[in-house]
Design brief:
The complex is a heterotrimer of chains A (about 350), B (about 150) and C (about 170). Chain A contains 12 helices and 12 strands. Chain A folds into 2 domains: about 130 residues, Thiolase/Chalcone synthase (Peroxisomal Thiolase, Chain A, domain 1), CATH 3.40.47; about 210 residues, Thiolase/Chalcone synthase (Peroxisomal Thiolase, Chain A, domain 1). With about 350 residues, chain A is an alpha/beta fold. With about 150 residues, chain B is mostly beta strands. Chain B has one domain. In chain B, a hairpin with a 5-residue loop joins strand 3 and strand 4. The longest helix of chain B has 12 residues. Chain C is about 5% helix and about 35% strand. Chain C starts with 12 loop residues before the first strand and ends in a 15-residue tail after the last strand. A 5-stranded antiparallel sheet of chain C has the order 8-7-6-9-10, with no helix packed on it. Chain C has a 3-stranded antiparallel sheet with strand order 4-3-5, covered by helices on one side. Chain C is mainly β and about 170 residues long. Chains in contact: A-B, A-C, B-C. The interface between A and B is large, with 36 and 40 residues. Strand 1 of chain B pairs antiparallel with strand 2 of chain C.
C-alpha cells in the first residue's frame, strides 16, 4: 500500500519554541541554552515532561567536537526515571519525522522534539566538508559555500534564474525578518544594492549566504485526546515524507530537486491550496529550486519568518520551518502550509511536511 | 576574577584515520597513482566517474572498469578568489564538476586558471598530475585541471 | 613508472586524517565549579524541586530538568561509595600502578564523582571509608580538577552503609 493511500493519523504541532538566534552563544553550554526553550515549549500549553511519551532530538557532535553531546543535552529535559528517547544526527525536522512515525504506529500519543547546535564553536566550513564522500570529495576539502556556488552556477547556466533573482530572495527574506524578533539578520536592503556585494565564491555574493547561527528549537506533537486538549484549533500534519538523492554531486542534476518533488507528491502538497511555504534554503538560489519542486505558484507567501537566510542555526533551521509554518496557521494567517527541510550538500536530502488548520 | 566568569578553552580534535578502499574505489585510486582515470559501467551502460561500488539504479555490482579522460568538459564551476587553508590550491582557482571524456557523470576537482574569465561551462580541461614519485593513490594525485590549450 | 621490483601493488587504503579546532566552554554552572576549585573549594548546586545537590553541576537537575541556580559550598570530606584498584598499564598513564580510583560522595552532596585515593595501601581501601581532599599548593591552584592532588583517609570510623547505599 503506498504512503498516499494509507490513512494518516492526525498529529498536531501543539507547541513550538525557539531560542534567540545569535551569531555566538559562548557563555552557556548546550544544556543551559536548551532549558529555557524546553520550558517554553511545555509552558505554552501548560504541560510538563511527564505529559509526553517520547523524546527525540536532532543535533550533531561535529559542531561541539565531542562525543554523545546529545546524551548530555537530555539534562535539559530531565530523564530520570528513564524515558523513551531517540536521537538523529540530523536537523530536528528528521527527529520530528521519527516521532511522527511512532505516532502513526499508535505507540505513543505525544512527543517532545528538540534540536540544538552552536555553529560558532568550530570552523564550520571544515566541519561540513566531513559530510562529503571521504574518498572522492572530502580529501580536496571543498567547503559548503563552494559546493553551493557550483549549484548556483548550474542554475544560472540553465536559464532558470539570474543573479538578480538570488538578490531578490535575500532582500525579501531579511526584510520580512524584521517582523520576526527571533531572527538574527533583519534589515531592509534593496536587491540592486545587494548586487554590488563582492563575490565570496562566484557566483555567490555575501548576501546569498546564510549567517552563522547558534540556536535551539523545540516542538511538541500530540495525537488523539491530547491534541484536542492542548490546542483550541489544532494544527494538523496531513502529509509528511522525506527522500534523498545520491551523494555523488556529479551524478545529480543540481538545478532541480527530484527528492523534494517526490516527497511533495507523497505528502500530498498538491491536494489543496498552499497559503504559506516555509522553505529551508540556506543559500538564496536554493529557495528557487525548492519552490519549483514543491510546485508553488506566485500566490504562495514564502518564508514570512525570513527563512534560513535570516537565521541558520544548524540542526534547528529545518525544525523551525515546521514550527513557523504551524504558527502561521495557529495565528489564522494561513489555513494550509508546507514546511520543507534539507540536509547534505546542495539539497541532497529533502523533507516535506504539509500542515492544515483544524476545525 | 568574578566567580561566575565563564571559562573558555581551545580544543583540538584529531584522528589519523585510514580507510580501506575495497576493489572499486581502490581501482580508481590505483589508476590515479598510475596517472589515469577509470570509470565503472552501470546497468544502463552509463559510465560512472568516480566509480561507485554498486549500480545507482539497480544496486547490482557495477560492471567493468573502463578508461576515461584525461581531458573533459566543465559542467559547472565556481571561482574561489580567497582560498581556504585546506583547499587544493592556495592561489585563486575554480572548483569544477568535470565530465571526463567517456564518462556520463561529472567529477569534482579544482581548475588552475589565471582568472574567472579563463573558463566557463563547456570549457575543455585536462588533468595536471603531480610527478609520479609523489602520487600515492588519492584525488590529490591530480594537482588540478588546466584549461586545454590555454595559459596556466 | 614503477618496475616489477618496486611495484607497490593496488591501492587498498587511503589515509584521511582529520583535525578540527573548537572553542570549548563548560558553560555557566561548570565554570562556577571550576572557579571554586581555583579557591580550593568544592561548589555544588541545589535543585529547587527535589532539593538534591549536584557536584559538579551542569546547570540542571537531571531528574526534574530545571535550572539549578542555588549555590552550595561543600566541605572537603566525603565517603568512598565504591572503588577499583588499577593494575593494568595503559597508554598515557600518568599515575604509578597500582593505584586506587574511587567514587567520592562529598558530605552534603547527592552525586559522587571520581577521584584518586592515596596514602593508603591498595589492599586496605574499603567502601564507606571517610576521605578528605588534599589540594595543591596555593600558588598552583587552577580552575581544574588538577587542583585536587588526591583524597586521603581522614582516620574517622567508616560511614554507615545506610548513608551511601542510595549512591551505588
Amino acid at each position: 500500500m503506498s504512503a498516499t493511500a494509507r490513512a494518516v493519523r492526525p498529529v498536531s504541532v501543539a507547541s513550538f519554541a525557539q531560542s534567540q538566534n545569535v551569531r555566538k552563544d559562548d557563555e552557556r553550554n548546550e544544556v543551559e541554552g536548551l532549558m529555557p526553550v524546553i520550558a517554553e515549549v511545555f509552558g505554552n500549553i501548560g504541560i510538563t515532561k511527564d505529559d509526553v511519551d517520547f523524546i527525540c532530538s536532532g543535533s550533531t557532535d561535529y559542531l561541539i567536537g565531542g562525543p554523545f553531546s546529545f546524551v548530555m543535552a537530555l539534562d535539559a529535559v530531565g530523564v530520570w526515571p528513564p524515558r523513551s528517547e531517540s536521537h538523529v544526527e540530523m536537523d530536528g525536522a528528521w527527529a520530528l519525522y521519527e516521532a511522527w512515525v511512532l505516532l502513526q504506529e499508535g505507540e505513543i500519543d505525544a512527543a517532545l522534539v528538540y534540536s540544538f547546535g552552536r555553529s560558532s564553536l568550530g570552523d564550520l566550513n571544515e566541519i561540513l566538508t566531513l559530510q562529503l564522500d571521504p574518498y572522492y570529495e572530502a580529501p580536496l576539502w571543498p567547503d559548503i559555500v563552494s559546493l553551493s556556488a557550483l549549484q548556483a552556477r548550474a542554475l544560472l547556466d540553465s536559464g532558470k534564474a539570474t543573479e538578480a533573482d538570488f538578490a531578490e530572495v535575500a532582500s525579501r527574506s531579511r526584510r520580512d525578518a524584521l517582523a520576526n524578533p527571533k531572527a538574527q539578520v533583519r534589515k531592509d536592503v534593496a536587491a540592486e544594492v545587494l548586487l554590488q556585494d563582492d563575490y565570496v565564491v562566484a557566483p555567490l555574493r555575501r548576501h546569498a549566504l546564510p549567517p552563522i547561527t547558534d540556536g535551539a528549537a523545540a516542538i511538541v506533537l500530540a495525537a488523539g485526546d491530547r491534541a484536542t486538549a492542548w490546542s483550541e484549533r489544532p494544527v494538523w500534519i496531513t502529509g509528511f515524507d522525506h527522500r534523498m538523492e545520491t551523494h555523488s554531486l556529479g551524478a545529480r542534476d543540481l538545478t532541480s530537486s527530484p527528492s523534494t518533488a517526490k516527497a511533495a507528491e507523497v505528502a500530498g502538497v498538491a491536494a489543496g491550496k498552499v497559503d504559506v511555504a516555509e522553505i529551508h534554503a540556506p543559500f538564496a538560489h536554493q529557495e528557487l529550486i525548492i519552490a519549483e519542486a514543491l510546485g508553488l505558484d506566485d500566490s504562495v507567501v514564502i518564508n514570512p519568518s525570513g527563512g534560513a537566510l535570516a537565521a541558520n542555526p544548524l540542526m534547528s533551521a529545518g525544525l523551525i520551518r515546521i514550527g513557523e509554518a504551524a504558527e502561521r496557521i495557529r495565528s489564522g494567517a494561513a489555513d494550509r502550509a508546507v514546511a520543507h527541510a534539507t540536509s547534505g550538500p546542495c539539497l541532497q536530502q529533502n523533507l516535506v511536511c504539509v500542515l492544515e488548520g483544524g476545525a | 576574577m568574578a566567580d561566575s566568569e565563564v571559562l573558555h578553552a581551545e580544543h583540538r580534535l584529531e584522528y589519523p584515520y585510514s580507510r580501506s578502499t575495497g576493489p572499486v574505489i581502490g581501482a580508481f585510486l590505483t589508476a590515479l597513482r598510475d596517472g589515469r582515470f577509470v570509470g565503472a559501467t552501470g546497468s544502463d551502460g552509463r559510465v560512472i566517474v568516480p566509480p561507485t561500488e554498486y549500480d545507482p539504479i539497480t544496486s547490482d555490482d557495477v560492471g567493468e572498469l573502463v578508461d576515461v579522460g584525461p581531458g573533459g568538459v566543465v559542467e559547472s564551476w565556481a571561482w574561489v578568489s580567497r582560498p581556504l587553508r585546506k583547499h587544493p590550491l592556495q592561489t585563486p582557482f575554480a572548483w569544477a564538476l568535470i565530465t571526463l571524456d567517456g564518462a556520463d557523470t561529472a567529477m569534482l576537482h579544482a581548475v588552475d586558471a589565471p582568472g574567472p574569465d579563463a573558463l566557463s561551462t563547456g570549457t575543455r580541461v585536462t588533468a595536471r598530475y603531480r610527478p609520479a614519485a609523489e602520487r600515492i593513490g588519492s584525488m590529490a594525485d591530480v594537482e588540478a585541471f588546466v584549461v586545454e590549450g590555454g595559459a596556466s | 613508472m614503477a618496475d616489477e621490483t618496486t611495484d607497490p601493488g593496488p591501492v587498498t587504503t587511503l589515509a584521511t586524517p582529520i583535525r578540527l579546532d573548537f572553542e570549548f566552554t563548560p558553560g555557566v554552572a561548570q565554570s562556577k565549579f571550576l572557579r571554586g576549585l581555583e579557591r580550593a573549594e568544592f561548589h555544588g548546586q541545589r535543585c529547587s524541586v527535589c532539593g538534591k545537590v549536584y557536584v559538579p553541576s551542569r546547570g540542571s537537575c537531571p531528574t526534574d530538568g530545571v535550572p539549578t541556580t542555588e549555590d552550595v559550598l561543600l566541605g572537603n570530606s566525603g565517603t568512598v561509595t565504591t572503588y577499583c584498584v588499577v593494575n593494568v598499564p595503559f597508554a598515557g598513564q600518568s599515575i604509578e600502578i597500582p593505584y586506587i580510583c574511587a567514587q567520592i560522595l562529598l558530605d552534603g552532596a547527592n552525586l559522587s564523582f571520581m577521584g584518586l585515593i592515596q596514602e593508603i595501601p591498595t589492599d586496605q581501601i574499603r567502601m564507606g571509608m571517610r576521605v578528605e581532599a588534599v589540594w595543591v599548593d596555593e600558588s598552583e591552584l587552577t580552575p581544574s580538577l588538577a587542583s585536587v592532588r588526591y583524597f586521603r583517609p581522614t582516620g574517622e570510623p567508616d560511614a554507615d552503609y545506610d548513608t551511601y547505599k542510595e549512591y551505588l
